[in-house]
Specification:
By secondary structure, the protein is mainly α. The protein has six helices and no strands. The relative contact order is 0.16. Keywords: Glycosidase, Hydrolase, Lyase.
Length: 88
């Protein structure tokens, strides 16, 4: 179920995010807290939100989530993902 949901997120509401690392981060936050909550931190319009996301590198995206996401645990999910990837 989890892999299918990630695919739905990647090919649905998060489609158009170009940077693979930003996409990973967006998937983790969206999986836990919903894609709508993430996208609304950028714009109420999905296309504008994706355009704004594409203007950021992974570090800038992380900082945006830290500063703007309503769920305080959202940045921690990104941090945990990065720690796991670094350990591989």
């Amino acid at each position: 179920m989890g892999a299918a949901y990630l695919s739905i997120l990647e090919n649905g509401p998060l489609a158009g995010i170009k940077d693979p690392q930003v996409m990973q981060y967006a998937l983790v936050v969206s999986y836990a807290n919903g894609a709508g909550a993430l996208l609304r931190t950028f714009s109420s319009d999905r296309k504008k939100a994706i355009d704004k996301i594409n203007d950021l590198d992974a570090d800038e995206f992380f900082e945006h989530v830290v500063d703007n996401h309503p769920a305080p645990q959202a940045p921690r999910y990104i941090w945990k993902l990065q720690q796991a990837l670094d350990a591989m």
